Amino acid sequence: MNTVEEIFAVLDEKFGAKRETLDKWGTTAVISASYLHTAVQFLKEKSDIKFEMLVDIAGIDYLTYPNHEGPRFAVSYAFKSMSKPGTRIRLKVLVSEEDLKVPTISDLYANANWYEREVYDQFGVVFVGHPDLRRLLNHVEFVGHPLRKDYPAQKRQWLSTNDYLLPELEKRLETLGYKVVQRSKEVETNDNEFLEGSIKE
Question: Residue of 21, 66, 139, 163 with fewest CB within 10 Å of its CB?
Answer without folding.
Answer: 66
